[in-house]
User: Fold this.
Amino acid sequence: MSENKKSQNSNEGKGGNQKLIIAIGAVIIILLLVVIIILLVKKPSGSDSVAGTTDETQRREVYVSDDNVSEIADQLESAVDEYTPLGRYTAMMSFEWHFANGEAESKDSYVANSSGNTNDIYFDIFLPDDSENAIYESPIIPRGSEIRNIKLDRDLEPGEYECILVYHLIDDDQNTISTASFTLNIIIEG
Assistant:
């Protein structure tokens, strides 16, 4: 009889271990689902430009099962490392700047970073056929500040130039969060 009890106790111990493993697995799956839901709720809707357009396609939720739980956990971990904070910018600027000559300051140039914006900015201006060599590189413009009477970094010949102004929204470490581009007319008169 005592041997029957030992065998019965041994089977009960195995059943208890299996229940414990199942319970731990269920808790891990529930925690992963909670993390996925939190990340999906907090994830920006894809707006990184002034017009609110995005290059990303709509993403769907991923079904988490026993077979893919570790793969989803790895993806979540890498997604947290790559998260980009949401930056918004309301453009406050004049879109046509006049210069008396290629070395003069423009009396009608104006760029402001509204105090209602979420990030500090800087901007670069490029000629349309040269997107690597800026004709002007601004300093950082904190929220609530503005720049007027801008002098280009490069002397341009008289004429009208349809340039590209690229805003960089930056974080506290001056890393670019996102960019937005605008067309800017520069007129060199003399």
Summary: The first helix runs from residue 2 to 42. Confidence is low (pLDDT under 50) at residues 45-57, 80-85. The chain is about 30% helix and 25% strand.
